[in-house]
Design a protein that fits this description.
There is one protein chain. The chain has 424 residues and is α+β, with helices and mostly antiparallel strands. It has 15 helices and 16 strands. Strand 3 and strand 4 form a beta hairpin. Helix 5 packs parallel to helix 9. It binds adenosine monophosphate (AMP). Adenosine monophosphate binds next to strand 6, strand 10, strand 11 and helix 11.
Length: 424
């Protein structure tokens, strides 16, 4: 086939059926779980003043390398959102809602990432955030919400990793120890890690190329304040109480700089090694304030919809729903009988297709076969004269009718009721 003049931009795709129906079903499942846990939906803008995202930390790749930034026609510096948390915090700072403020969201995020399977430049996320309370039980409730969603999809191979990054006050001592450690092994670090070390030593723990050196680094758990350690103990006790399995992963720092205390990540063993993370989140007790709002704590998570569904593929769960029509209208009359019948059936809630352009009976029956419909509703001049239609099974006998019956005649006025009854 000739290459078309334009293609979808690198790292983006056109999603089509049945994937689109599957995504919608997954999002519906998430919305249901979030609603049950008392979260209301927020739809923030897809772009913000770049400054909103820069607050996420200039040492994180998401901000330093992957931000889709541009100047709009008014000369404003704008960025497409790389994630939702910053927008939610900006909205909180602006709208000052009553606390606790519990919101969930769905929509695309944008990152100028190197595209590969499970890594796109536009990808869908669902997530939830709760602002206004530093109760660690809220951290547990958020994790439980994500966990119930995965369980609802049938994903049972999800591993939950948790860690505490402590409070900002705990950081300097730890960073000092961490920096001293990495500096003592500088010649073993990748060039990239050496550059990151200057900006944010925590992120070196996250470097895929420096796993061996990072594995022996001092861990934050040994530097936590009593309050942060108590909060983390409450989180793990809560997970135990709810029967949610987890592993404490002392080197889990996650990609963004703003996390404090609890951080967590969900990984699926079914995915390729490079992108096993299907979601993650944590506490960000300083972010709203950094965006010019009041000093309110927050906790939340985001899940990658595309990757979650790839994990479902690998686990052979949550298959795409069958889509398509149930009935095919075949019309070989001079008049608009096909149009009238189809619209009547659709108005009656029956998924109905038909062929266009006045094609022959044979061609229309072929199209009916291909459509996957179970039943054909046929109208010709004879049917018009007797004010009837013929109802024919496209696969075996007519459902619910005596054995061997593949076709029946139905009064024109009864067509919707009869077909609905046949389809059960
Ligand atoms: P993060 O904020 O980086 O932890 O992202 C949350 C989740 O979004 C990840 O766990 C992934 O499932 C998903 N995600 C992040 N970046 C991408 C991407 N470029 N393509 C597809 N999914 C992504």
């Amino acid at each position: 086939m000739a290459r078309s003049r334009f293609q979808a931009p690198t790292g983006t795709r056109d999603l089509l059926e049945p994937d689109t129906s599957r995504i919608r079903a997954a999002v519906d499942a998430f919305a249901d779980k979030a609603g049950t846990a008392g979260f209301g939906q927020i739809v923030p803008p897809m772009f913000e003043d770049s400054g909103v995202f820069v607050r996420l930390g200039e040492a994180s790749d998401v901000v330093s390398k992957e931000l889709y930034e541009f100047e709009d026609k008014g000369g404003r510096s704008i960025a497409l959102r790389p994630e939702f948390t910053a927008s939610v915090c900006r909205a909180f700072a602006e709208l000052r809602p009553l606390v606790p403020w519990k919101v969930w969201y769905v929509g695309p995020s944008f990152r100028y990432d190197k595209p590969q399977k499970g890594r796109y430049r536009q990808f869908d996320q669902v997530g939830a955030e709760a602002l206004g309370s530093d109760d660690p039980e809220l951290d547990v409730e958020l994790i439980a919400l994500a966990w119930r969603f995965f369980a609802d999809l049938g994903l049972t191979d999800v591993t939950l990793m948790v860690n505490s990054l402590g409070d900002f006050a705990d950081r300097p001592r730890y960073l000092e120890a961490l920096t001293a450690y990495f500096e003592s092994r500088l010649d073993e670090l990748s060039e990239q890690a050496r550059a990151t070390l200057v900006k944010n030593p925590l992120r070196v723990l996250d470097s895929k190329r420096d796993v061996a050196v990072a594995a022996e680094a001092p861990i934050l758990a040994d530097f936590l304040s009593e309050e942060a350690a108590d909060a983390f103990a409450t989180v793990t006790a809560g997970l135990d109480l709810l029967g949610i399995p987890y592993t404490v992963e002392p080197r889990l720092v996650r990609g963004l700089d703003y996390y404090t205390r609890t951080t967590f990540e969900f990984v699926s063993s079914g995915l390729d090694a490079a992108q096993t993370a299907i979601g993650g989140g944590g506490r960000y007790d300083g972010l709203v304030e950094a965006l010019g709002g009041p000093a309110v704590p927050g906790v939340g998570f985001a899940l990658g919809v595309d990757r979650t569904l790839l994990a479902c593929d690998a686990a052979e769960v949550f298959p795409a729903p069958s889509v398509g029509v149930e009935v095919w209208v075949v019309s070989v009359t001079e008049g608009p009988d096909g149009l009238a019948l189809s619209e009547e059936l659709r108005a009656g809630g029956v998924a109905t297709g038909r062929a266009y352009d006045g094609r022959s009976m044979k061609a229309q029956m072929k199209a009916a076969d291909r459509s996957g419909a179970r039943i054909a509703v046929i109208v010709g001049e004879d049917e018009v004269k007797s004010d009837t239609v013929s109802v024919r099974s496209l696969r075996g006998d007519l459902p619910g009718r005596p054995e061997g019956e593949q076709q029946m005649t139905v009064a024109r006025s009864e067509v919707v009721a009869s077909v609905s009854a046949l389809l059960g």
